[in-house]
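Bumping my old thread because nobody answered last time. Still need a sequence for this structure:
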């Protein structure tokens, strides 16, 4: 992991576009970059796993949609709010997943514009593959001690606080 350059090696140019930042602000900016990189790496891990299993019909984003759909029956909008599908169109991917037989869809009786989706047996199989991959990673990380300092529960708590803050910022815009 790259760490920020020590303060003494930074430019002291007063015309710099980025003012001198506090350590907390720098840590926040680094966390933003780490989140994006981790998400991209997670997609790469999924891609590698599916290639290893000779399952080349799904993209990593589609596999994550199936994973996040889980055992629920939800609308496309609900599904979109459950996960991060960077650079993808959830409706397009759902249509592809229905066509490939991974997802069942059904129009709502109350609102014909609304479509409810749920996993097919094929989709459940893919979800299990992703789940098993994540379990293997969790076991490896636990054995290595990476998740102990700070405890992952505290990291998750802090991340949920940032998520809540961002959600409040979005609500205040409108």
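Sorry it took so long. Here it is:
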């Amino acid at each position: 992991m790259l760490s920020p350059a020590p303060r003494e090696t930074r430019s002291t140019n007063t015309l710099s576009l980025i003012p001198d930042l506090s350590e907390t602000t720098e840590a926040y900016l680094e966390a933003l970059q780490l989140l994006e990189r981790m998400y991209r790496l997670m997609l790469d891990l999924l891609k590698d796993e599916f290639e290893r299993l000779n399952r080349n019909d799904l993209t990593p984003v589609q596999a994550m949609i199936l994973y996040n759909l889980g055992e629920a029956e939800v609308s496309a909008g609900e599904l979109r709010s459950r996960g991060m599908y960077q650079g993808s169109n959830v409706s397009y991917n759902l249509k592809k997943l229905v066509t490939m037989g991974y997802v069942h869809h059904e129009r709502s009786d109350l609102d014909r514009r609304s479509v409810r989706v749920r996993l097919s047996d094929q989709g459940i199989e893919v979800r299990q593959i992703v789940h098993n991959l994540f379990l293997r990673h969790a076991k490896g990380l636990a054995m290595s001690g990476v998740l102990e300092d700070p405890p992952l529960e505290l990291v998750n708590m802090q991340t949920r606080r940032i998520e809540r803050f961002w959600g409040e910022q979005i609500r205040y815009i409108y």
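Residues 8-15 have pLDDT under 50 and may be disordered. Let me know if any region looks off to you.
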